[in-house]
């Protein structure tokens, strides 16, 4: 075994290690968020269709493998190869757990959103036939870049040898996400009803979530591309690209778990409507004697459908959604 190559004098080692370390740490943090979201999904929607459950649990298994590979990368760079410049320059298995697996997850999530668009309005098939090829192409070029990077065995040389792989991968992701956000927003806003405030409120929430999550993933892709071009010859672009995969996975789970908030809002509205009706009937029957006491008992009875555990899960889902949006 050849002797390790030490860090050169006056060399800023943080410029090499910081992107790898921060990318790995944020990746693990978002994996924890994903696990909690899967738990929320499991206890909240046990009667979902089989293919939806397979998608959720398949993503969890896939992300668990990716996190294990990321752990192997960090172990190789900062433990086995501590102080060895060859280890820090070697991507190890990161070409597979970052561009390859990230592109496959983004393809899966974008295909799911295309399915939702098709369910909402099948006249948008032409747009789906635009988004799917873009998503497939970005995945193909990301896989090609991963194979090339692993073959060369150097972060910078591998990325700079075939820059078009990185360009197509990141730009393709951003374009697909923007098209999905625009299509979903147009479909949902066109379904608004001027005489139904609750329906409009629900649709507004869904539109906001769709735009924010897709804007987040598209923004990270463009941000990675900007760093790749602006800081050419460095590995700073690795930090946001390591995180991208977990953003897509959490976006998928947010779209599933968001139904819990909407369901609780619907239950609350129904309870409020029932209480108002009972109050009005009691007022007609005996406005002076039974107005307060009868309304109090009916309120306790009718608010029960919004259970304490469901409210807790709803609050947790809301907190997680804000965490993912602003990571």
TrEMBL record:
Pfam families to which the protein is assigned, alphabetical? DUF6534
What keywords are annotated for this sequence in UniProt? Membrane, Transmembrane, Transmembrane helix
User: What region holds the DUF6534 domain?
Assistant: 174-259
* Highest rank taxon of the organism: Eukaryota
Q: Where are the transmembrane segments?
A: 20-42, 54-78, 98-118, 125-147, 167-189, 209-228
InterPro entries associated with the record:
DUF6534
Q: What is this protein called?
A: DUF6534 domain-containing protein
